[in-house]
């Protein structure tokens, strides 16, 4: 293992467009190799949606194309919208070169109509190969193919049928990259139009497809978040985004369990990993799944008490990170989901104490069990890798 300083992760805030756009961003900046940036862009509350959209686009361009360190390539964008049906006419039509860009109806809990999370990279040499397709950004670098995908939807049938169709389409798209769901998919996000009504159908279809493809409790699952969120089509009950990597050796991927705090998800009928770690020559990526206030018997901890649930949720996230020697300082980006918007001030106070400078987004989005008031996911970068491997 090689050990590099924590100060390679830099968190900061800035404002653009005469103070109308606030940006929180985190950068992982090694002395050489690929630099990564996560950013959360917010427009001042009260602006017309069309104005907010234009300001976000211009700010994203300036953030990535006018950096003193050099230009970044945007790999991934996700827009969180407060009112999808009314905002839909302002959104751009999908084109073949949009790449991985998704639009999710989850109300941002700071008064914004729209918030953007973007992920960008900057490399220091010319071996990069980046292409954008209708719903994916494909980045080939150091012998690996990173596939960030967005907007898998199907507008007919039950949530079970829709999940089956969209996952089959995703698997076909991976196959065109000579990749598979079983060997290469690292992370998924599922957004369900009404979590209390349609989540069960998603769970069944995913489980059936996993079993068919050899994903079982004895092999492994995939890190995931399953949360309420609306797509841009009212008939879409399930929306999926995903990330896969081709070219990893099996020993580069490991799974996070934290058995003192959490139980295997299959024990209560769902099929995802609590977290996934991917090790490279110069860093380790940690993808923490949606994590709530739960114990290692699968029971909800602190029912009806959002402050206590927030603290237990954070404790669980820390336990997962600790399995690879990481902690909250290594978190590059976090999303916090709240069932009840009135719980936002209390939850925000606690999370901001833990992550004072990290890009963190709070949205209203019910969790898959009514008793859970809050859930959190995050992406972390540990500045340690295996120097027998190629860097990221």
Written account of the structure:
Helix 6 (306-322) runs parallel beside helix 7. Among the domains are: 1-124, 60s Ribosomal Protein L30, Chain: A, CATH 3.30.1330; 291-392, 60s Ribosomal Protein L30, Chain: A (2-Layer Sandwich), CATH 3.30.1330.40. The strands form 4 sheets. It has a 7-stranded mixed β-sheet. The protein has a 6-stranded mixed β-sheet with strand order 2-3-4-8-5-6, covered by helices on one side. It has a 6-stranded mixed β-sheet with strand order 9-10-11-14-12-13. The relative contact order is 0.15. The mean pLDDT is 94. It is an alpha+beta fold. A hairpin with a 2-residue loop joins strand 10 (136-141) and strand 11 (144-153). It has 7 helices and 21 strands. The chain starts with a strand and ends in a 7-residue tail after the last strand. The chain has helices at 49-65, 84-87, 159-176, 181-184, 195-212, 306-322, 344-354; strands at residues 2-3, 9-16, 21-28, 35-43, 73-81, 100-105, 107-108, 114-122, 129-132, 136-141, 144-153, 185-192, 223-228, 238-246, 253-256, 275-279, 284-292, 331-338, 360-364, 374-382, 384-385.
Summarize the structure.
The chain is α+β, with helices and mostly antiparallel strands.
Number of distinct beta strands: 21
Helix content: 10-25%
Tell me the Rg in angstroms. Answer: 19 Å
Structural class: alpha+beta
The run of helices and strands is EEEEHEHEEEEEEHHEHEEEEEHEHEEE
Unreliably modeled segments: none
Mean pLDDT, all residues: 94
Across the major sheet, the strand order is 7-19-18-20-17-16-15
Kindly report the oligomeric state of this protein: single chain
CATH architecture of the domain at 1-124: 2-Layer Sandwich
Return the CATH class of the domain at 1-124.
Alpha Beta
CATH topology of the domain at 1-124: 60s Ribosomal Protein L30, Chain: A
| DSSP summary: helix tally | 7
How far is the N terminus from the C terminus?
A: 15 Å
Strand content: 35-45%
What is the makeup of the main sheet?
A: 7 strands, mixed
Shape: globular
